[in-house]
Design brief:
The protein has a seven-stranded mixed β-sheet with strand order 1-7-6-5-4-2-3, sandwiched between helices. The chain is 37% helix and 15% strand. The N and C termini lie far apart (65 Å). The protein has 410 residues and is of the alpha/beta class. β10 (341-343) and β11 (351-356) form a beta hairpin. The protein has a domain at 85-312: Type I PLP-dependent aspartate aminotransferase-like (Major domain) (Aspartate Aminotransferase, domain 2). The longest helix has 36 residues, at 301-336. It is globular and about 60 Å long. α3 runs antiparallel to α9 (301-336) and α9 crosses α11 (395-408). It has eleven helices and 13 strands. Bound molecules: pyridoxal-5'-phosphate (PLP). The site of pyridoxal-5'-phosphate (PLP) has 15 residues, from α5. Pyridoxal-5'-phosphate is lined by residues 76, 132-134, 160, 162, 201, 203-205, 225, 227-228, 254, 266.
């Protein structure tokens, strides 16, 4: 075997040791990283694999944000389960290319199977895997332009920036429709939609609001951006939150958010896969199978997702999502009953916006010692934001850290 492919056992145990070290809970889940100990210029001579791993581990692994720290209650990025670390290693080693049947036959079939498992949960009949919901939204609106001839995209003022970005890329006009104080799109304030796609959001980025998913009945195309809250469909207790999603023409779901996958992994789903895929299929020359969608050469993100779904089943996914929702509920309760703090609104999809009444939220956040939350900028100013993507998050500890920081600032 070529030495580049002959992985020494010592490298594996080094990798496991350094990983274990990086995963030991740190006092602060996020550190400020200013300078990295890496050469300024492209090295002329290599230092060898083990020395390179040592340098990279110091520069990245041990300085990475600890997404599974009990104090990390912040962003939509989950700490992926260990089964996905192993599939990621395997994927990197065998390097399938889903563009080709020759080098990606098995991985292509795994992707088809994962889509067949998940699409029915959203009332969709198929779709494919993409690297994120930015790409899923773009792909869905591309289908809308080709299949339904849309010329405009209408979405609420709270929609993710990727929706506007997709409209710009596709040469479509973009219109922001009003949303209410609860950040839900106002269905009574919609323009004529007969030449438009309406994009409804299930789980807005800033506050987790869920648009009325049956709005815009006269639209030429209805797309649901369920990048964040889509996985609630796998929970019997919470699936009703996305009631109406099954009437959409397309749905975007990020697996690298609430399906706990490593980046980059998302699904674009269609009510009529054949119609959507037909307009985005290209072939020719060296391609044995048609190229469907935005991507050319791409890897097998679906393998990690398939492994996770096999390991946990729907019930295991449900248990984790339900527990995450309970953690968000707990934080919301703690905030609501403490008069020094303000809760933006109830827990709709595991995103809680909250803030101190008498202190600067950004300053408070920076002085929290053993916890980390994100910030969200709303009409009413800056708020703290906690997203329930970390199954190890401890809402009591996070809230206690905010209370302590408030005390310190007095
Ligand atoms: C509602 C919503 N849509 C789309 C996206 C974009 O998804 P991605 O980051 O997977 O490209 C996000 C990301 O946060 C989001 O919150």
């Amino acid at each position: 075997m070529h030495p580049d492919r002959n992985l020494p056992r010592e490298a594996l145990s080094f990798a496991a040791d350094r990983l274990e070290r990086a995963l030991e809970p740190r006092a602060r889940p996020v550190e400020i990283v200013e300078a990295l100990e890496l050469p300024q210029r492209l090295p002329e001579r290599g230092v060898g694999e083990m020395a390179a791993l040592e340098q990279i581990a110091e520069a990245t692994l041990e300085r990475a944000a600890q997404l599974d720290n009990p104090g990390f209650f912040a962003h939509m990025d989950p700490p992926p389960p260990w089964i996905t670390w192993i599939t990621a290693l395997w994927n990197a080693a065998v390097n399938p290319n889903l563009l080709h049947e020759d080098t990606g036959a098995a991985a292509r079939r795994v992707e088809r199977r994962v889509i067949a498992w998940l699409a029915p949960e959203f009332g969709m009949d198929g779709g494919h895997v993409v690297p994120g919901s930015t790409m899923a939204n773009l792909t869905a609106l591309w289908a809308a332009r080709e299949v339904a001839g849309i010329r405009r995209v209408v979405a609420s003022a709270q929609a993710h920036l990727s929706v506007r970005k997709a409209a710009v890329i596709l040469g479509l006009d973009y219109e922001a429709a009003p949303s209410g104080a609860d950040h839900r799109l106002d269905p009574h304030a919609l323009p004529d939609l007969t030449d438009a796609a309406i994009v409804l959001t299930a789980g807005t980025t800033a506050t987790g609001a869920i648009d009325p998913l049956d709005a815009g009945g006269d639209a030429a195309w209805r797309h649901i951006d369920a990048a964040w809250a889509g996985p609630l469909r796998l929970s019997r207790h919470h699936r009703h939150v996305l009631e109406g999603v099954e009437h959409a023409d397309s749905v975007a779901v990020s697996a690298h958010k609430w399906l706990y996958q490593p980046k980059e992994s998302a699904l674009v789903l269609f009510a009529d896969e054949t119609a959507a895929h037909d307009v985005m299929t290209f072939g020719g020359g060296y391609l044995a199978v048609p190229n469907v969608g935005m991507l050319g050469s791409h890897g097998a993100a679906a393998i990690s997702l398939a492994a996770t779904l096999l390991a946990w089943g729907r019930q295991g996914m449900e248990a984790r999502i339900d527990a995450d929702m309970a953690r968000a509920d707990r934080l919301a309760r703690l905030v609501a009953r403490d008069e020094r703090f303000e809760l933006w609104g109830p827990n709709r999809s595991g995103v809680i916006a909250w803030r101190p009444r008498q202190a600067d939220p950004a300053g408070l956040r920076d002085s929290m010692r053993h916890a980390f939350v994100s910030l969200t900028h709303l009409e009413s100013g800056t708020w703290l934001r906690s997203v329930a993507a970390n199954p190890a998050a401890d809402p009591d500890a996070v809230f206690a850290a905010a209370v302590d920081a408030l005390g310190d600032s007095r």
